[in-house]
C-alpha cells in the first residue's frame, strides 16, 4: 500500500490528533503540521491541534504564523504523555521524544514525518527521508496523492517552507522539491508569498547580527563568532547564513547565550565537514545538537559550562573557550589548521 494511503488509514483510526512541532518551530515544521492537519481532517479526524514549545521570534516565522493565521497551542509535556485513548500523536520535522522537543522520553508516537538525520525512530508510521530537502516536500506529496483539498493558504505555506528550507532551492534541493513547487505554484497566493519572503527585521535582530559580524574569528576556512548574551535566538542562524558567504569561509558557526542555554547555529559548504555530525560529536554528551551536512544547530544547558555564580564577561569568556575548543576537536579544524601552518612554514623555509 502506498505510504500516503497507509498514513490516511492510520489517522482514520483516531478520534483526535495532536501534532507536536519541534522547539522554536520554523516554516518547514509549521507548514508540515498544517498539511498533516488537513490530511487528518479529510480522514475524518474532527479534533486536531498543533503544539509547540520555545519561542517564535524569527521575523519570518512570526510573519508566517500571523499572515497565515496558524492556530498554535503551548505544549504541556504531561498532557501529551497522558493523552486519552484514541488520541494520536504525530511529530513533523523532528522524530524522537525529548530531542529538540519537550515531549517526555519514551512517550509512544504514532506518526513521524521528517528529513533530519536520526539513528532510530520508533513510531507506528514513519516516513524518514534524509535525502529530502524539506519535510514540507513530503507532506506536499501526501496532499497531492490523497487528493486532499488545498487552498491558497496551505499551498503558500508549503511553497514558502520549501523555499526557505532550501535557501531558494540552492541548499539540499532535489527534483522532489522542484516537483512539489510546480504543483504548489499555481495554487499559491503570490502577494502573500512576497510578504513572507520579505518581513520587517527588528532592530534587536539587526544588532545581534552586527555583533556576530564584529566578533567573527576566521581560522583557515572556518569562522566562529560569539554574540554573547542575547534575546534574539533566531538572529544566530541568520548571522550564520550571512557569514558563511564571506570570501574564503567554508564553515561558519555562531553561538550565544539565550536565557539559560547556549545556542549554536552552523553552516558549511566544506565537503570534508558534516556540520550536524561535528556539532553532535562536540556537544551530544552535553545537550542536543545535530543536523544536516550543510546546516545544523544545537542547544546546551548553560550549567554544563559554568557554575551558577558565573556571569557577565567571565561567563562569556568561559563559554567561548569551551565551545571553541570542543568545536575544534570535533571538526578536525585544529588538525587541518596545524597542517596548513606547517606547510606555510616549510614553504617559507625553502
TrEMBL record:
Taxonomy, superkingdom: Archaea
Domain DHHA1: 226-302
Family annotation (Gene3D superfamilies): 3.10.310.30, inorganic pyrophosphatase (n-terminal core)
Ranges for domain DDH: 18-162
Pfam families reported in the protein's UniProt record: DHH, DHHA1
One annotated GO molecular function: nucleic acid binding
Designated name of the protein: Kef-type K+ transport systems
Protein species of origin: Halarchaeum acidiphilum MH1-52-1
